[in-house]
Write a structure and sequence with these properties.
The protein has 236 residues and is of the alpha/beta class. Helices cover 39% and strands 24% of the residues. The strands form 2 sheets. A 6-stranded mixed β-sheet has the order 2-1-3-10-4-11. It has a 5-stranded mixed β-sheet with strand order 7-6-8-5-9. It is globular. The model has no long low-confidence stretch (mean pLDDT 94).
């Protein structure tokens, strides 16, 4: 059989996982992965509007909605990993104490500028962060300091920090770890943390559903789970 290009739509949190695993998958199967990355909310919207893919990795809640609307095959959903939100600073910069909510709030108010996902149309972390700033009573102060990445692989908050355009970056841990040359301080305190479960599924309009399923099977092997963990995700 000639090799197939398997079209994958995936949350940006999986960027470095695919960079590492794609060559091994391609060697093992002879098929190629064509991966398009983006914020899960955006991908869920695209899939809901009928964008074609052979496999998709989105948030568990997004996948539920897609199954309910008939856009994703009900029996195809498999848990892949969970992702926590973290904080990063410029390389060698003093690391803020984010072990408590109070410490996090102090660090936010002390920072000159903060890179994060857009609260509307960006990633899951941006929506959550807007709520956290609201809860802490610092929403107005933070709005003036926020620098939003473009969303997707080119708009990672870590890149904004790397370029020196923000003191602090806040995004999914895996997305921060995807940027070399910045220091990842650690996850948000548990009281204000949001853990996002990411799942894989087969869109109803998949041209190569069986091939899409082989990618899902590959992502839950012990080797793949080790890579997920090394890249800042918690394997399911």
């Amino acid at each position: 059989m000639p090799p197939i290009d398997i079209k994958v739509l995936s949350t940006t949190a999986m960027k470095t996982v695919f960079e590492e695993l794609a060559p091994a998958f391609e060697r093992a199967t002879g098929n190629r992965l064509a991966v398009t990355l983006g914020p899960s909310l955006r991908l869920e919207k695209q899939l809901g509007e009928g964008e074609a893919a052979d496999m998709a990795i989105v948030s568990a809640s997004g996948a539920r909605d897609l199954v309910a609307s008939g856009k994703m095959a009900a029996g195809s959903i498999v848990d892949i990993a969970t992702s926590s939100i973290g904080v990063a600073v410029q390389k060698g910069a003093p690391r803020p104490d984010i072990s408590s909510v109070e410490g996090f709030k102090r660090a936010m108010l002390a920072a000159k500028s903060i890179a994060c996902s857009k609260p509307v149309g960006g990633g899951q972390s941006g929506v959550h962060l807007a709520k956290v700033f609201e809860q802490l009573g610092i929403a107005a102060a933070m709005q003036a300091k926020a620098k939003y990445g473009a969303g997707g692989a080119a708009g990672l908050a870590g890149l904004v920090v790397l370029r020196g355009e923000a003191d602090i970056g806040i995004q999914q841990m895996a997305e921060l770890m995807a940027v070399n040359g910045i220091d990842v301080v650690g996850p948000l305190p548990p009281e204000i943390q949001m853990v996002t479960p990411f799942v894989a599924g087969i869109p109803a309009n998949a041209s190569h559903a069986a091939a899409g399923k082989t990618v899902i099977d590959f992502l839950i092997t012990p080797d793949a789970k080790r890579v997920l963990k090394a890249k800042g995700l918690e394997p399911a």
